[in-house]
Each structure stands twice: as C-alpha cells, then as structure tokens.
Amino acid sequence: MAIERVFTGIPGFDEILNGGIPRRNVVLLSGGPGTGKSIFGYQYLYNGLVRGQPGVFVALEEHPVQVRLSMAQFGWDVAPYEEKGRFALVDAFTAGIGEAARREKYVVKAPDDFQMLIDTIRAAVKEVEAERVVIDSVTTLYITKPMLARSVVLQLKKVLSGLGCTSILISQVSVTERGFGGPGVEHAADGIVRLDLDEVGGELKRSIIVWKMRGTSHSMRRHPFDITDRGIIIKPKEVITVYRRE
Predict the structure, then answer these.
(1) Would you state the torsion angle of the CA atoms of residues 108, 113, 116, 120, taken in this order, to the nearest 10 degrees?
(2) Alpha-carbon distance 152 to 156, whole Å?
(3) What is 23-195's CATH topology?
(4) C-alpha angle with apex 62: 61 to 63, nearest 5 degrees?
(5) Alpha-carbon distance 48 to 52, whole Å?
(6) Is 205 exposed, middle or buried (0-12, 13-18, 19+ CB in 10 A)?
(7) pLDDT digits over 144-161, tens only?
(8) How, if at all, do strands 132-136 and 166-172 pair?
(9) What is the pLDDT of residues 79-90, one digit of tens each?
(10) pLDDT range class, residue 175, cuts 50, 70, 90
(11) What is the pTM of this model?
(12) Spans of all domains in the chain
C-alpha cells in the first residue's frame, strides 16, 4: 500500500524525504539558536494553507502578534486564513495578559497546566480541521516540568496523530549539544530533523540532516541550506561535511 505523504513545499526537503513526511507523523525539529527552526515551521504551515490544508501554530515562546509579523516578513500573511477559519494560533505565551492577548481566540491561561494546553490545542485543531500543526517550542515543556515532558509529548502525539495531523515539534538545543531535545522525547517522535549552524572554513554554514523518519527512506547525508526572503531553500544535491571540536 502506498504511503500517504504530506508535501511540505519547502524547496529540497521533500526531495531528501523521497516525497514528503508520511501523514500523521510527529517530527521533532531540533537545532541551536539562529538555525531557522521557527522559519521552517512557519513555511511548513503556510505552504499547507495555500494548498488548502488548514493549520495550527502553538506559540509557547513568542507573542502571537510577533509570530504573525515574523511570518509576514516572508510574505506569509495568515490573517485571511484566520478570518476564514482555516488557521488558528494558540497563545500559550501571554497567559491572556495584555490588550493584544485579550483579542486572541485560543489562549492557554496557565501555560504550565499541560492538560489545559492539550485541551486548547485539541479545540483549535478540531475547529479549523487542521492537517498541519507546529508547536514552538516543546523545550518550554522540558524546562517547566522535565519529569513530565516525555508523557506530555506522547499525549500530544496521540491527540495530533489521532486527529489526522502531521506535526512538527520544535526543540531547542545548545550549539555544542549532540542530542535533539529533552529526556527521552526523541524516542516518542516518528521523525527527527536537525538544523545546524557551523563554522566551515572561517564562514558560518547552515545544514540539515534527517536522523530518522518512520515510514519512509530518506537521505542519510547532511545538506546545506539557505534562508532567503522566500524562506528556507535546501540543496538536496549538495553535501556538507562538518568537523566539530569535542
């Protein structure tokens, strides 16, 4: 039986995944600061919207107003999709404090209340009939209650996959860290993609590598990518070698 895939629309990424992310997969997108994780998430969601696939963005570390502004910088205006009920932004950052926050439709009043977070995400996904979800970032969950992080991610996976979503969970790691996120969280994910920013020959270079992706074969190589005014562009035919100091 043919695998049903979600075409991300991110230039070069679907090519290194042999056609896209298998539907219902939960992908952990990890990387250090400045590697383009949020941009990747925005681009994935917006490409879905223009293809008629509704989406939900969960903001855990940035004000919803700033998220919309950041997306608009790349020409990804989500306002028309919000008005049509095709896109929802879950505010798990402000706790409903502030004038702008009071205008948000989906607000997690206590961001450290995991059940409230999951219930709000579920409500938003059901209402817009979302097919794509991005959570930025699950690192907040590890910091708040590290012992519960794995169970929360497993619960999120059950809810999101059960509702038919193909999701990206963004995870922050330090530049020197070899892992992908919090304790055991990588084992809960169906896929792991890592973005890196390394010094190569005296110049900072961006690269992407797919560590695992359940349900499909994928490139086992590290590929360079650029961040342009149109978003991320991956070079699937090029390979980059990075030597890290231990």
Answers:
(1) 40
(2) 6
(3) Rossmann fold (3.40.50)
(4) 135
(5) 6
(6) middle
(7) 666 777 788 889 999 999
(8) parallel
(9) 999 999 999 999
(10) low
(11) 0.94
(12) 23-195
